[in-house]
Amino acid sequence: MTSYDPEILQLPFYEDAHRALAAEAGAWCDARRVLWEETRELDPDAAGRRLVRALGEAGWLAGLDPEGPAAPEDFRTVCLRREALAYAEDLADFAYAIQALAATPIVRFGSGAQRADWLPGLAAGTLIGSFAVSEKEAGSDLAAVALAAEKGADGSYVLNGRKAWIANATIADVFVVVARTGEGPGPLGLSALLVPADTPGLRVEPVDATAPRSFGHLSFEDCRLPAGALLGRAGRGFVVAVDLLERFRTTVGAAALGFARRAFDTALAHTRSRQAYGATLFDLQLVKGRLADMEIELNAASLLVARAAWETDRGSRSFARHSNMAKVHATEAAQQIVDSAVQLLGAAGIVRDGVTERLYRQIRSLRIYEGSTDVLRMAVAGSLDMRRATRTTA
Prior knowledge:
The protein is an alpha+beta fold and 394 residues long. The protein folds into three domains: 6-127, Acyl-CoA dehydrogenase/oxidase, N-terminal domain (Butyryl-Coa Dehydrogenase, subunit A, domain 1, Orthogonal Bundle), CATH 1.10.540.10; 130-234, Butyryl-CoA Dehydrogenase, subunit A, domain 2; 239-385, Butyryl-CoA Dehydrogenase, subunit A, domain 3 (Up-down Bundle), CATH 1.20.140.10. 54% of the residues lie in helices and 14% in strands. The protein has twelve helices and ten strands. It has a four-stranded mixed beta sheet. Strands 2-3-7-6 form a four-stranded antiparallel beta sheet, with no helix packed on it. A hairpin with a 5-residue loop joins strand 2 (148-151) and strand 3 (157-167). Helix 4 crosses helix 6 (90-109), helix 6 (90-109) runs antiparallel to helix 8 and helix 8 (237-273) runs antiparallel to helix 11 (355-363). The longest helix has 37 residues, at 237-273. It is globular and about 80 Å long. The N and C termini lie far apart (48 Å). The mean pLDDT is 94.
C-alpha cells in the first residue's frame, strides 16, 4: 500500500529529498502493521506513550532538535510524514503531530537553556509534549484566553485558571501554555510559558473523545513557575500561538489526505471485488460517479496542501492564507470521502473497528482543531480585501 499519489510527488512543489522521504516513510508504516494493531488494543494513554517512543526510536522526531545530529525538517517533510501516518494509523499521526506541535514553539522562540532542557527528550521520544491554548470560553478566539499568570517581583509567575480540550494532557511531561500576563489588552496581554507536568497545583481531568486518544482539561491552582519558564518575550504569547497554528494547519490538511486516501483505496478495492446485480459494484454507473467525485476531491486537496507547504517553506508572506485554504478544503473533502466510502461498503462500513468505521470517527475532529472550518473561512474572506488592494496598486 502507499499513502501518496506518485503524480503529485513529481510536481515542482517537491524535491528529490521529499520523494525519497515519502518512499521511506510509506515503507516504514507498511512494515509496522503489528504495532498499529497492538496499540489499538491499549488504552489511549498507553498507546500514546508507546507510539511516541517508537517514533523517537525510529528517528521520526529527530528534526525537532536543531542541535541534534539530524537536520531540521521543512514543512513539506512534516506534511508527508503526517500523510503517511494518518493513512496507516490515526493514533500514530496524533502522537507525531502533537509532539511536533509542542516542540516547535521551543525551537522557534525558546532560549538556549529551554532548548537544551526539553528538545533532546522530545526529539528522542523519551519526553512527551503538549500545547495548551484552548479554554471553554476561548477556543478559536485566542484573544479571549483568560488563564491568569500573575508575575511576582522576582520574575516568577503564578498560574490560576483552566485549559480545555488539550491533546496529550494525560501523558505530557511539559506543556507550552498560553496565559494572560497583562502587558496589554486582549492579545497584547498574553505570554507563553513552559509548565512541567509535575508542577504543584497542576491537575489533569481526562476527557473521552469520539476517537479514543490522550485528551483532557487542565486545572491550575497557585502553580508557581520560575522566571525562566517564560517562552520568548512577555506579551508575545499571541504571536507564538498564531505563528504555530498558521504553520501547522497545512499539516492537518496533510493528515486529512492520509485519512481520505485510505478511505478511497478501501472503497475502490471493495467495489471491484463485491459482486452485485450480475457484475461488480464498480460496474454500476452511480458507483463509478461517486468514486470519480472522491478522486477529484483528493486531487484538489493534494494540490492545495502541496502548495501551502511549499509557500511556508519558501517564506512567502501569504503562507497563512494558503495554509487556511488547504486546511479547510482538505478536511471538508476528507469528511465527504470517508462518508462516501462508508456508503459504498454498506453494512460492512459501519462494523466497529473496521477501517472505514475508524476513519469515520477519526476524521471529524480535523474540521475543528487548529482553527475550525467556519473560522478559517472568515480568515480567507478577510484576506480578499488585502489581495484586491495589492492588485489595484499593481
